[in-house]
Description:
3 helices; about 80 residues; mainly alpha; elongated
Amino acid sequence: MSTGIILGLGLITIVLCFYIMLNIPYWLILWKKTKNEDIELKKAYYQWVYKSDDSLNKILKFCVFCLYAYGICVFILEIWSKYF
């Protein structure tokens, strides 16, 4: 396997693992809420703290998105060059 394929598969694996690991608590809360409607989330801060998305977070999200997009492009190009 070439380096691009290995990097692409590793990047996809990392993305899937992070997605699953970061969403497990949210999925558990939703599952518990559907089983018992009386459960309310205890919030320690104001509503705006949970909803805030400042420019620094948007820039960081954009940089991570660009990194993943680059990795996917490299992976696709390597697969394309190997088999076509």
